[in-house]
Amino acid sequence: PDGEEEYINMLLTKVNECKAAHKRDPNNDAALVEWGCGLSFLAMTEGDMKKKKEMLRESRDKLNKAIKINPDAITANGDYAIFQLGSIFYINFLYEEDDKQAEQYFEKCKLCFSKGAKRYPHIGPISTPDNAYEERAHIQATAKRMQGKTQQEQLQEYVQMVQEEHARCEQKLKENPEDTNLLMANARSMLELSQYDLMNSRLLVEKATTQLRKCLQLERSCEVLTMLSLALNSRGLGQPFAEGARADLVEARECFTEAITLEQDPVMQRQMLLQLRDMYGFYAMWKERCPEQADQLVVDQVPDWLADLPDSIVSPNMSEASALNTRELVSHLKRGSRQGRRVKNEQTKAMAPPPKVDRSEEVEEVKETSEQAPSSAASAEAKKKKKKRKKAKNKSAPTPEDPAPERYVTPDTKTGPSFPSATSLGLVGACAAAALVAAYLVIRSRRAAAS
């Protein structure tokens, strides 16, 4: 509960900073983007459905205004506002009771992703989940169970739902013991229950870790490795002795490192690199929990190249090169090199910025229209440039300490924790991108969604 309150206070502080920045400069698109994102995350922690929808509406309004001012507006994490807007439309689709209105939100979500993919082809297509309608049906059923209950009653109801999910998974695993989806769902339910059943917390985390290891033997995927990393961090923080804590925390980072190398989306990889850096802070968290053993814990320092990464490792004028830079960083991560901070900004000098438009339409009002695909000549030219960039791979270049243009980062948003990326729909939950910074946040996210 204290951690959740701290997270909400952090969001409120950030929103207030963005308000002040926007008041000083109404054309500050960076402040509007961060403001809109902050409101969307706050909405996911709001239990009252009417207030939740109002916060989401206001969030869309801020992002639309930012895009109207600057079609290439980005967050402090380097995520384009158009994708953030699409994710928020998807959240509206999930929580809207009226089927007709929900379908409109879903179409606007797909429209945002389509526009973003065409404007930023280096990111690639972003599609909505295949089980979107099933997910919406589940959330609507959950909302009905929560309706009219106090906050304490909602918490009890939610714990009961997780217990039911756990029992269902256990029963199905008897019939299909090697079903990776069931193994992951069961492990997730045990990790969630560990946050409430304090008497059996360590046992539940241990069982979840065991099931995730089994799942990893069947399917070595980014998702499984990420969840196993979360479980190991949780187990490590609960270890009573320094040796056991260190072993779990180191293995958690190793799993997460492998997950980064398997992730295909450069935007997600950039966010995950920052999360990997934050995971080195778990040593300090364990020392606070076990001060009598603090001197016995061997602490690993953050590698130089990882420590030097700025909070936003994307240059808004170098969008395509940022993907290449991320791959360079990840390649160093694979080799265990300390030279990951050497990125290829020099390659971007020959690159043209994303195509500009005369004006930006608000997606809230726009109707879907056909857009021309890039011409074959343009595609051929892009391939030639890509080959030139590959040939220039070993050239010296400035380091990522070079600051990004000021119009994208306001004085009020330079410091402090930045908002999670929402480009990937896997992050549409309350705060899933921040989950690996503090293990409890990913557990709270589903309770927030259920409320």
Walk me through what this model shows:
By secondary structure, this protein is mostly helical. It contains 17 helices and no strands. The protein has helices at 2-24, 29-45, 49-69, 81-95, 99-119, 132-146, 151-175, 180-193, 201-218, 222-237, 242-262, 266-279, 282-289, 304-307, 319-335, 376-391, 439-450. Helix 11 runs antiparallel to helix 12. It is globular and about 55 Å long. It starts with a helix and ends with a helix. Residues 313-324, 337-361, 365-379 and 388-451 have low confidence and may be disordered.
The proportion of strand residues reads under 5%
Overall geometry comes to globular
Structural class: mainly alpha
Mean pLDDT score, rounded?
Answer: 74
Q: What integer value in Å does the Rg equal?
A: 22 Å
How far apart, in Å, are the first and last alpha carbons? 15 Å
Helix content: 55-70%
Number of strands: 0
Topology:
Blueprint: H1 2-24, H2 29-45, H3 49-69, H4 81-95, H5 99-119, H6 132-146, H7 151-175, H8 180-193, H9 201-218, H10 222-237, H11 242-262, H12 266-279, H13 282-289, H14 304-307, H15 319-335, H16 376-391, H17 439-450
Helix pairs in contact: 1-2, 2-3, 3-4, 4-5, 7-8, 8-9, 9-10, 10-11, 11-12, 11-15, 12-15
Q: Could you give a short description of this structure?
A:
The protein has helices spanning 2-24, 29-45, 49-69, 81-95, 99-119, 132-146, 151-175, 180-193, 201-218, 222-237, 242-262, 266-279, 282-289, 304-307, 319-335, 376-391, 439-450. It is mainly alpha-helical.
